[in-house]
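Dig into what follows:

_____
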Amino acid sequence: MSARRTIIASGLVGLLIALSAVALITLSGVPPVRQPTTSGTTSQEVSIVTTSGSAPSTRTGISTGVSSTTATTVTSSQAQPSTGQGVLSVLMTDPPHVPTGVTAIYAYYISLAVHGERGWTTVSMAGEIELMGTVDVAQTLASANMPAGSYDQISLELTSALVTYEGVNYTAIVQGGHLTIRIQGGAIVSASQPAAALIDIQPIVMNVGSESSPQFVLWAEARAFPVPSAQISESTGTEGSRFSLQGLGWWDNDQNTANTAIAVSGVSLSANSLGLTVADTATSGTWLKLVVVSEANPTLGITGEDSVPSAMIGAAVFVILDNGTLIQFVPILHISMPMAGGESQVSVLDALRMAGYNLTAGSSIHLSYSGTIELSFGVFAQPGGINSGQTYWVTVVGDNTISSTQVSAS
């Protein structure tokens, strides 16, 4: 691609803590939070605190939460002079990775803002969207009058989510909910022509409980693109307005120039070892986060290379460190085991704070692990092991991509 995407990902430590907490809730006998099944979006009250200051600074794929510069927050209002103003609409589309049985994701957000020459401008204080209904569809989140000029970033906070699974809504834990997204090429606002920017959000939803007692974690990556002026109509500025993205040349081009995909090959698995090669096969690269090994059986619901296991209970979960090392993580105990190279628990947990391997566009890496592999995610009882001759799924999870492959254990 001509310019590498800049995105804010969920922190891996936060994700692992969430996995631990959810697993503890599941196994302690506390039932998951269930909401009545709804045909529409569920309402939610949101408490909002507006502050001035800088947006989080970033390195690609990692949220640092600090900034060395100060940006002034400019809130859109009718008090702004009409001369030199224009309309900017923010839209969203979504190609999610979800387990089989998930039919809807109701996401709630606050503080939707855009960044331009004057700093940050609030577009909407709060809103909601059903993400599964925006696959190959662009839906308007909000529009606002704002000073004319170029806008290069969008910011919003995902506060909570409901996941509809087998006809029932479950509250999901949202990790890395703050997204600061670069608009690739920028969006130009003028008094003569309305403008629009499209957020391409790419959430991954995983069931860290069981199929009968599901517990969901959602974390998301996002990128954004300007919408061509020829595509913008009067209705684009109306909240909830939708149009199909299928067959649109500009959208296909944006996707091709900022695509993310991985391929897994050369997988070997035994009771005491795991090896695999992960290659970036697209144009953007990704941050590799986790490797999940789970038994291959029909109840898992994995149907292809980009499928997510229906449940992670009883799987082996490996964290990918920034140097490509695999550490087997047992979140129920809040430790990594066995310890890699004799490292202490403290040093391993310190390493997790910067976990994630930067797989650049067109590159590949061989990941390996040596030690007893325990199928123990979320299980208090004696963990199971890998059995020779049995088939397993090996799933690699990146920031916004997943690849699963089957292997027969030796």
